[in-house]
Specification:
Blueprint: H1 2-37, H2 42-49, H3 57-75, H4 89-92, E1 98-104, E2 109-112, E3 132-138, E4 143-147, E5 150-152, E6 182-184, E7 187-189, E8 202-208, H5 220-254, H6 256-270, H7 275-290, H8 302-330, H9 332-336, H10 339-351, H11 356-388, H12 391-433, H13 450-503, H14 510-541, E9 549-552, H15 553-563, H16 565-571, E10 574-578, E11 585-588, H17 590-607, E12 613-621, E13 626-634, H18 665-675, E14 679-685, E15 688-696
Parallel strand pairs: 10-12
Antiparallel strand pairs: 1-2, 1-8, 3-4, 3-8, 4-5, 6-7, 9-11, 12-13, 13-15, 14-15
Length: about 700
C-alpha cells in the first residue's frame, strides 16, 4: 500500500500543477476575451459585484432605448410607429418598476402610464414618488438625471449613456453627417437627418428603488436585475476557481521535488522523439498560437469560441513546457536524437555484426552510396529550381547539401577517432611489453576498437594474475626451503659434533671406524647441501645483501683456481687457462662472484671426462663494454637434456646420480649472477658443456 502511495504521489502533485495552470490559462483567456469583445471593464465588474444595478451599463442602455422610443413616438407626425395601443405595450410590461411621461407641446401628443406629471408641467424638476430613487428627465433644453438624490452628469464620457441611443440627442457629442451613418468613438450613430427633433418636448423616466417581478408580464428591468445577480455569482465563482488554480500551482511549487519525478517520466517519453518531429510540432504550435483570434464578432457561439481558444492556448503551453523541460534535462541529447543519428545508429548495429575489416570497408561504401544519392537529388532539385524558378526546390536542394556535408563531417570525425584509438592500442601493447600490467586501456563505449580494448585489458589481467600466482608460488617455495634449511642446521650441527667426538675415541673396532668415516662424509655433504639451499633461497627471494666494489675479474679467477689447486691436481684433468695479464675491472660483489666460479669449476671437476681438458678463458669486448668468461669441459656422461633444464633447482646433468652433487650448483651460480647484475648462459654441443658469464666493465 505504501509503495502504491509513493508511486502515485508524484502524479497527484503533477495533476495539481496541471489543473492549476489550466485554470489560470482559462481565467486569463476568459478575461482577455471579456474585455476585448464586450463593454465589461473593472468598473463595470465592480458595479456588478456591488449589485448597483442603476449604475450598470445595461441599465443605462435600457433607459436610453426607452427614452429614444418615447422621443420618436411623440415626434412622429406620420404615425410610423403605429397607434398608441401597440407600441407602448413593452413599456407597460414593466408595471410598477417604470413610470414614464412624454409630451410634445407642438403636436399635443402625450404618452404616459401615470396620472400626474410630477410637477414638470410647471417647469420644475420632477419630484420622485415614494419608493422610487432614479429619474431621467429632458426639460426641452437639456438632460437631468438623479440617483438616490444625487444629480448625475450624463454628458461625461464615462456616463454610460453615450453607448446607447441617448448619445444621438447629446449635441456636444453628435457627429453631423449628410451621407448617413458615421462612427463616434467607435460607436455607430445615426446621422442628424434621422434624429427626431425633441426641442421643447418633455420626457421623464422614473425607476423603482426595489425592482420587482411583474406577475402579469415580462419585466425587462426585473430580468436585468436577475441577470446582474447571476453575473455576480458567476464572477464570484470565477474568482474562487482562479484562486483555487493559484493555490494548486503554489502547492505544486512547494512539492516541486516530488513533481520532478513525474516530469522525468514525461521527459523520458518526449526524449524518444526525434528532434525533427519536435521542431515541426513546435513550429505548428507557434503558428497556431500567433493566429488565435481574440475577437468573436464572426463567431455564432461565444462558448465554443472561448473553449476552443482556451484549448489551443493550453495545448501550446503544455507542449512548450514539455520541450523546455526536455531541453533543460537532456541538453545536447535534445538535438542529437534526430533522424540522421538514429539512421546512423541503426547502421552501426548492423555494422557491429561484421568483422572489423569488412565493417570499415562497408562504412566507406555506405558513405559513397549515400553521397551519390544526395548529389543526385541535389542536382534534380537544382534543375527544378532553375526551370520552375520556385524557392521550394532551392530549399530542398540546400537541405540535401546540408545532409551530405553533415555525413562527411561525421565520417571524418569517426575516422579521426579511430586513428586516435589505434594509437592508444599500440601504445598500450608497448606498455604491456615493457611490463606495465596495472594501467588499463579506456575507450568510449561506441568506439570501433572498444571490444578489442576490452579484450586486451582482459589479457593484461590474465597475464598479471598468472605472474602474481607464479611469484606467490615461488615465494612459498623459497620460504619453505629457507625455513627447512634453518631447522636442519641445529640437528646437523649436533650430528657433526658427536661424529667428530666418536672419531677421536680410541680402541674402536675397524668396522666402527669405517662407519664413523662414512657418517663424517655424509654429514659434510648434507651440510654443504643445506648451505647451498639456504644461499639459493636468499638469492631468489631478494634478501641477499650485495656489496658491490671494484674488483679485478682475472685476479679473482686465478685466486679461485689457486684455492682448488689440490683438487685439480688430484683430478687428473688438464686445465687450459687464457686470462689477460692486464686487469679486467668490474663493479660487483667479489664474494658472490667467487662463489659462482667456485661452483662452476667444482662442477667441471665432478662431471668432466677423466684425462680430458677444461678450458677457462676471459675475453674483453671493448665495443660492448663487456667482459666474457667461458668455462668448457667434456662431460663424462651422455648429456641428453636441454640447456634450460639443467639450470633448474635440484636437477643434475647426470640423471643416474652416480656422482655426488646437490643439483643446486648451477642454479646458485645463475642466481648470484643475476643478483650481481651479470648474466649466465649454458650451451651443450654433443659432449661439450660450455658456460658463459657476462659482466659489465
Amino acid at each position: 500500500m505504501d509503495t502504491k502511495s509513493k508511486k502515485s504521489k508524484p502524479f497527484a502533485v503533477w495533476l495539481c500543477f496541471f489543473i492549476g495552470v489550466n485554470i489560470v490559462i482559462s481565467a486569463i483567456m476568459f478575461t482577455i476575451t471579456l474585455f476585448k469583445n464586450t463593454y465589461y471593464d473593472f468598473d463595470e465588474i465592480r458595479t456588478v459585484l456591488k449589485l448597483d444595478i442603476k449604475d450598470s451599463r445595461n441599465f443605462k442602455n435600457y433607459i436610453a432605448s426607452r427614452f429614444d422610443f418615447l422621443a420618436r413616438y411623440i415626434t412622429d407626425n406620420d404615425d410610423r410607429y403605429g397607434n398608441s395601443g401597440e407600441f407602448p405595450r413593452f413599456l407597460d410590461n414593466e408595471g410598477e418598476n417604470l413610470i414614464y411621461y412624454a409630451v410634445n407641446p407642438k403636436t399635443g401628443k402625450i404618452l404616459t402610464n401615470s396620472k400626474t406629471d410630477y410637477g414638470i408641467s410647471e417647469g420644475k424638476n420632477p419630484s420622485l414618488p415614494e419608493g422610487y430613487d432614479y429619474y431621467l428627465y429632458y426639460n426641452g433644453e437639456k438632460f437631468l438625471a438623479e440617483l438616490e438624490g444625487v444629480p448625475l452628469d450624463i454628458y461625461r464620457n464615462d456616463s454610460g449613456y453615450k453607448t446607447g441611443a441617448l448619445s444621438n440627442y447629446i449635441d456636444e457629442n453628435l457627429s453631423v453627417s449628410i451621407t448617413g451613418i458615421e462612427h463616434v468613438s467607435g460607436i455607430e450613430v445615426i446621422s442628424s437627418e434621422d434624429i427626431p427633433n425633441i426641442e421643447g418636448c418633455k420626457i421623464l423616466l422614473m425607476v423603482r428603488q426595489d425592482i420587482i417581478e411583474n406577475p402579469y408580464a415580462n419585466s425587462s428591468l426585473y430580468y436585468l436585475r436577475k441577470n446582474i445577480e447571476t453575473i455576480r455569482w458567476i464572477i464570484i465563482l470565477f474568482i474562487a476557481v482562479f484562486l483555487l488554480g493559484v493555490a494548486l500551482i503554489v502547492l505544486s511549487i512547494a512539492k516541486r521535488e516530488t513533481k520532478k519525478e513525474f516530469d522525468k517520466k514525461l521527459i523520458g517519453i518526449s526524449g524518444k522523439l526525434w528532434f525533427e518531429i519536435k521542431a515541426i510540432i513546435s513550429l505548428f504550435m507557434l503558428i497556431l498560437l500567433l493566429k488565435i483570434p481574440l475577437n468573436w464578432y464572426y463567431s455564432h457561439d461565444l462558448s465554443y469560441f472561448l473553449l476552443t481558444r482556451i484549448f489551443y492556448v493550453a495545448l501550446c503551453y503544455w507542449w512548450f513546457y514539455l520541450m523546455f523541460k526536455d531541453l533543460f534535462v537532456n541538453r545536447r541529447k535534445f538535438f542529437t536524437n534526430n533522424f540522421i543519428n538514429s539512421l546512423i545508429k541503426f547502421y552501426r548495429s548492423f555494422e557491429s555484426r561484421k568483422p572489423f575489416q569488412k565493417a570499415m570497408l562497408l562504412r566507406l561504401y555506405a558513405l559513397i552510396a549515400a553521397e551519390t544519392v544526395l548529389v543526385f537529388f541535389t542536382g534534380l532539385f537544382s534543375v527544378g529550381a532553375l526551370s520552375e524558378s520556385e524557392g521550394k526546390f532551392i530549399f530542398l536542394a540546400l537541405i540535401f547539401v546540408a545532409i551530405g556535408i553533415y555525413l562527411i563531417y561525421r565520417y571524418i570525425r569517426r575516422y579521426s577517432g579511430l586513428i586516435n584509438d589505434i594509437g592508444k592500442v599500440i601504445n598500450h601493447i608497448e606498455a604491456i611489453k615493457n611490463g606495465d600490467m596495472e594501467t588499463k586501456l579506456t575507450l568510449n563505449s561506441d568506439a570501433d576498437l572498444y571490444l578489442a580494448a576490452e579484450n586486451l585489458n582482459k589479457i593484461q589481467e590474465g597475464v598479471s594474475r598468472a605472474v602474481e600466482e607464479k611469484i606467490k608460488s615461488e615465494r612459498m617455495k623459497v620460504e619453505l626451503i629457507t625455513n627447512v634449511s634453518h631447522d636442519l642446521k641445529t640437528p646437523l650441527t649436533s650430528i657433526i659434533s658427536y661424529t667428530d667426538l666418536l672419531s677421536k675415541e680410541e680402541g674402536l673396532p675397524e668396522h666402527v671406524k669405517d662407519y664413523i668415516k662414512i657418517l663424517v662424509q655424509k654429514s659434510d655433504r648434507l651440510k654443504t647441501l643445506i648451505r647451498d639451499i639456504f644461499d639459493l633461497s636468499k638469492a631468489t627471494s631478494g634478501e641477499m645483501k650485495i656489496e658491490k666494489e671494484k674488483i679485478d675479474l682475472g685476479k679473482l679467477i686465478r685466486q679461485t683456481l689457486a684455492d682448488l689447486d689440490e683438487q685439480i691436481s688430484q683430478s687428473g684433468l688438464l686445465f687450459k687457462i687464457d686470462i689477460p695479464d692486464e686487469p679486467v675491472y668490474i663493479i660487483s660483489d667479489g664474494t658472490k662472484i667467487y662463489r659462482v666460479f667456485l661452483n662452476l669449476i667444482c662442477n667441471a671437476l665432478k662431471y668432466s671426462l677423466e684425462g680430458s681438458r677444461v678450458y677457462i678463458s676471459l675475453n674483453v669486448e671493448s665495443s660492448n663494454k663487456k667482459a666474457i668468461a667461458v668455462i668448457k669441459n667434456i662431460a663424462n656422461y651422455e648429456m641428453n637434456f636441454e640447456e634450460e633444464e639443467v639450470l633448474e633447482r635440484f636437477v643434475r646433468g647426470d640423471k643416474s646420480r652416480t656422482t655426488e652433487g646437490s643439483g643446486l650448483g648451477l642454479a646458485i651460480a645463475q642466481s648470484f649472477m643475476q643478483a650481481c647484475g651479470g648474466n649466465m648462459s649454458i650451451k651443450v654441443d654433443g659432449d661439450l658443456f660450455k658456460v658463459e658469464l657476462e659482466f659489465n666493465l
